[in-house]
Amino acid sequence: MRFNQWLENIAVYEAGKPIEEVVRKFGIKEEDIIKLASNENPYGSSPKVIESIKQNSTKASVYPDDSMLDLKNALATKMNISVENLIIGAGSDQIIEFCLAAKINPQSKILIARTTFAMYEIYAKHFGTEVIKTPSHQHNLQEFLQYYHQYKPDVIFLCAPNNPIGECLDSADIVDFIAQINNDTLVVIDGAYQEFAAHKDVKKKIEPNTLIQSFSNVLYLGTFSKAYGLGGMRVGYGISSQEIIQALYKVRPPFNITTLSLVAAIAALQDHAFALQGIENNFKQMRHYEEFAQEMDIEFIPSYTNFITFVLKEPHDSTLICEYLLQKGVIIRNLKSYGMNAVRITIGTQEQNLKVLRLLRDIFEARG
């Protein structure tokens, strides 16, 4: 069977290994496995979310409210925007797909950092679009400007903070950058980890309402998967001008969010204290990884997220380290596919982190 020729150049997205696979492969009990590969919230979901799902469980057979007005109203109040500036997706990555479907074609180009969220490239290639990458692994806005003028992309992605390495642009620098971009170029600001960045450093905090008031060509992405602990419910959102939102609705399928996902997201927004406690714990626990890296002379990228990236040097190899930990029931993320000898570790609970650091110490002390 023949398929679109550009599918030949698309690498399948590699999600973090599921716990079930480790159980099958190594015979380790599920309760003994620590999964720190997918940046899920180690503290789970708010009790209010769990209770809301229970109370609405009988609605699982009913299609959701396709207007999603209750969730939109809650988000609009929180973000100080209009509901007309919002679109809801099955995770923020679905909205990435929407914006590319609305904007690009095989003659288009998109511009991204060398190392960033893989789905920007994968979705772009679905449409046969050329992907331009800056030379630096981290976001370098001078490189972005140079490549913008050289290649004239239709869409630019800025991941702030950046997944999978954790660095984050200052919000003022993002604003200065957008001001130099033509209004017909869509600038997507991926704020999946913004709750963490804004808590750690106010200079990183992005105000979506201010952005869309100042610029008509910006789309901001947010998610409930990280700080709010709803990775399994798949709820994301986009904030933009009414013109852009209306265009995205033309490619959105009906009922793209489940009934239970909607009620879970609304409940999560109502428990800010739960999300804040998780964020504070995240950075307290991250300090242990930073101290370990400094002690062992391991390069790490200062992180504004719920994960930390260790950049390794010989004789240490990211693939071997990930495999060793996997055999011990610990799942972390290998960044070798991004051209980096590096590992990304989600910040877990104190108990999880102590075990992971103990195993990492064994590795680094044994190999010197």
Automatic annotation (TrEMBL):
Family of the protein in this entry: Belongs to the class-II pyridoxal-phosphate-dependent aminotransferase family. Histidinol-phosphate aminotransferase subfamily.
Annotated protein name in UniProt: Histidinol-phosphate aminotransferase
Transmembrane segments: none
Cofactor dependence: pyridoxal 5'-phosphate
EC number: 2.6.1.9
PROSITE patterns membership: AA_TRANSFER_CLASS_2
Reactions it catalyzes: L-histidinol phosphate + 2-oxoglutarate = 3-(imidazol-4-yl)-2-oxopropyl phosphate + L-glutamate
Native source species: Helicobacter fennelliae MRY12-0050
Subunit and interaction comment: Homodimer.
MF-aspect GO terms: histidinol-phosphate transaminase activity; pyridoxal phosphate binding
Major enzyme class: transferase
Keyword Metal-binding found: no
Gene Ontology biological-process annotations: L-histidine biosynthetic process
Keyword Calcium applies: no
Residues the record lists as N6-(pyridoxal phosphate)lysine modifications: 226
Domain Aminotransferase class I/classII large: 32-357
Keywords: Amino-acid biosynthesis, Aminotransferase, Histidine biosynthesis, Pyridoxal phosphate, Transferase
Pathway recorded for this protein: Amino-acid biosynthesis; L-histidine biosynthesis; L-histidine from 5-phospho-alpha-D-ribose 1-diphosphate: step 7/9
